[in-house]
Amino acid sequence: MTLTIQLPEKLEAALKAQADAHGVSPAGYVQGVLERELAGSVSEQMPGAPFKTGRGLLAKYGPAPSAEEIDTNRAEMFQHFAEE
Fold first, then answer.
1. Domain encompassing residue 63
2. Residue 58 lies in a domain
């Protein structure tokens, strides 16, 4: 899509300065800003887009216990529950 906008002189100067500071053309800088700004709304509209998860966050602690191990531990913990 091609978009043409009119910028005030002060805004145009600021855009050129930012683009120069990032080593890109003014059009490239604006495209980067729009991509960053609109990335969230684009991923929400695309049902197949990946999303961020916490998977792997605790990987340094080793594998998670299996369902059987959890059931065994739960049975051992509550074996004498409410007994006097």
1. 9-77
2. yes
Greater confidence, 30 or 40?
30
**The pLDDT of residue 74 is above 60:** yes
Q: Is 30 left (phi over 0), alpha (psi -120 to 50) or beta?
A: alpha
Q: What is the number of domains present in the chain?
A: 1
Q: Closest Cα to residue 30, out of 41, 16, 43?
A: 16
The model carries a pTM of: 0.48
Is 63 part of a structural domain of the chain?
A: yes
Give Cβ neighbours of residue 25 (< 8 Å, ≥ 6 apart): 19
Contact 17, 26 (CB under 8 A): no
Task: With beta carbons less than 8 A apart as the criterion, state whether 44 and 58 touch.
Answer: no
From 9, 12, 33, select the one nearest 22 (Cα to Cα). Answer: 33
The answer to the question of residue 82 being in a domain is: no
From 43, 63, 47, select the one nearest 55 (Cα to Cα): 63
